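Many introductory courses stop at the sequence. We go one step further.
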Amino acid sequence: MSGARTDTEAVEEANTAFYEAMERGDFEAVADLWLDERYGEISCVHPGWPVLSGRGEVLRSYALIMANTEYIQFFLTDVKVSLSADTALVTCTENILSGGPAEDGAELGPLVGQLVVATNVFRRTPEGWKVWSHHGSPVLAESDEDEDDEGAV
């Protein structure tokens, strides 16, 4: 097999880099992974937030999240990549573990787990695959499979 990356692998790497930059709290890396104005308007929906449009609004939201999150880790599951020409769609489940600022002299604040389903749209640019849109929705109910398993005898 050749050493050249496939488009699917390159998109998977860009998607992973997006989440790793968030985990590190690296705002510059997060900003660099988003599409810039030359290629059109970006959008983002964080769980429970309204639609954010434009680079300024989207990047401010990440700066706010990073400033108020002491610790965050993403365990991605169910990752699926679909490609069409210069556009890629990634769906995944974000299994998130996060913690806010510590209180009463503790090292870390309380850790909270959250399950979010996400859709990330990437666009191919001369600089590589860049995030065009991110939409995260909280998982509020168990799946039908879980309910069916509970009723099995």
